[in-house]
Amino acid sequence: MGPYRKSRMKSPRLFSGLAFAMLFLPTLVFAQQAAVVEEEKFSLLVGERTWLSKGKSDFNIAGVGGVPNVLSELIWDDVDSTVVELSANALFYQRWMWSVEVGFGAISGGTLRDLDFFGNNRTFLFSESISTADDDGLFYVSVDLGYRILSWAVRDKKPRSSLDLLIGYQHWREKYIATKGVQTQDPFGLIGFVGPFPDQGKAITEDFTWDSLRVGARANIEILPKFSFRGRLLFVPWTHFKLEDIHHLRTDLRQDPSSRATADGGFGVLFDATLSYNVWRGLSIEAGYQLWDISSGEGTITARSLIVGDVQEPFNEANSTRHGLIIGINYLF
C-alpha cells in the first residue's frame, strides 16, 4: 500500500495465532479416544447471542493522480452497538453441516474525525473536524457449509467434542450518521471558524458494506461433563467493499449520494471463543469474547460534484473492526 497505510491494531494477528492453538492443539491430546458413534441422520442447534461490541471504521483516499497520497481520512471511533444475533446450525449424518447467522443492532455512541492534508504521508494538515456519531445501526448475515473431520470424548455413543472445517459467505453493513460538528484545526484559515457548525443536524452519513468469503475451523471441546469450550477461527481471503457517503452540508455535492467507492481484495479475521454450560437436556448457556477485523484492498472513489460532474480519485484502504463480550443461549434438538 505504500506510505499512506496507517498502523493497524496488532491484536487481530495475535488473536489469530492464539486462536489457532486453542482450536487445534487440544485435538492432539484427545484424538486418541476412538469409539463407535451413534449415527443420527439430523440434529439442529438454534441459538441467540447478545454481543456487547465496540467498533471502529475508517478509510482514506488520495488526490487526483495520487497526489497527495493521503488527501482525506475519515475515522469513526467508539461506535458502540449491542448486537442481537439469531443462528441455526444443522448437522447431517454426524458429518455434513450448514449454518446461518443474522445479526442487527443500533449505534449508541462514538465520534467522527475528518482530516484533510496538502502533503504526502499525512503532512500539511489543513482541516480537522470532530463530530458526534450517535446514529444509525448495523446488520449482518452469514452462511457457512462445513464438514466434521474429527469427533472424540464419546459418551452414550455420542461425541462430546468435535472439530469442523468451514467455508462460507458474509454480508456485513454498518451505517453511521454524524452530528454536532466542530472545526478543531484550521491552520491556513481556509474554513474561517472553529464551530460548532451552524446546522447541528446531520453532517455526514456513511455506509460501510462488506461482502466477504471466509474459511476456517470450529471446535467444541468438552472440559467437564456439563462444561465445554467452543471456539471458531475464520479467515477472510477476499472481500468486496462498498462505501456510500453523503456530505449534508456541502451544497456543491450531490446528495444521492455525494460519493461512492468500491474496492476488492483485502484480508480479515473473525474469531470467537466461549465457555458453555449445559443447563438441562439440550439447553445450554455460553459467555465469551468475539473479534472481527477486515481491511479492503485498493479501489476508486467517485466524488459527485454539481459543478464539474463526477471526479474519480484513488481509494487507498478501508477497515472495520468490532469486538467485545458475548453471552448466549442455545437449544439442541
Outline the secondary-structure elements.
Layout: H1 11-30, E1 42-61, E2 72-77, E3 81-92, E4 96-106, E5 111-119, E6 123-155, E7 158-185, E8 202-222, E9 227-247, E10 259-265, E11 267-280, E12 283-295, E13 299-305, E14 309-332
Antiparallel strand pairs: 1-2, 1-3, 1-14, 2-5, 3-4, 4-6, 5-6, 6-7, 7-8, 8-9, 9-10, 9-11, 10-13, 11-12, 12-14, 13-14
In terms of quaternary structure, what is this? single chain
Please report the total strand number as a whole number. Answer: 14
Main sheet specs? 14 strands, antiparallel
Order of helices and strands: HEEEEEEEEEEEEEE
Mean pLDDT, to the nearest integer, reads: 87
Number of helices: 1
Unreliable spans:
1-16, 18-37
Beta percentage is over 45%
Radius of gyration: 23 Å
Helix content: under 10%
Secondary-structure class: mainly beta
Between the first and last Cα atoms, what is the distance in angstroms?
A: 49 Å
Overall form: elongated
Keywords for this structure?
6% helix, single chain, 1 helix, 333 residues, disordered N terminus, 14 strands, 14-stranded antiparallel β-sheet, mainly beta
Structural commentary:
The chain has 333 residues and is mainly β. It has a domain at 1-144 and 174-198 and 280-288 and 316-333. It contains 1 helix and 14 strands. The chain has one helix at residues 11-30; strands at residues 42-61, 72-77, 81-92, 96-106, 111-119, 123-155, 158-185, 202-222, 227-247, 259-265, 267-280, 283-295, 299-305, 309-332. Strands 1, 2, 3, 4, 5, 6, 7, 8, 9, 10, 11, 12, 13 and 14 form a 14-stranded antiparallel β-sheet that branches. Strand 11 and strand 12 form a beta hairpin. The chain is elongated. The N and C termini lie far apart (49 Å). Mean pLDDT is 87; it is low at 1-16 and 18-37.
